Amino acid sequence: MTPESRSQATAAALILLGAGLVLYFLPTIVLWIGNFSPVLAIFVGICLIMAFFAVFWLRARYQRGRGE
Description:
Layout: H1 3-34, H2 38-66
Helix pairs in contact: 1-2
């Protein structure tokens, strides 16, 4: 395993671990916020789900910019 591929694997693992934790606690977070405002809870839920895809999109842009 080259240092570059090890770095990519580590980054992917950290991203998936972070996303897994957010998705695991998402129902609790949304229900807690929903006690104050249902609209805000929907907005937070959407933002947390979209953040998962935004991380991979930003990583792809960064790698494309580096020419990899």
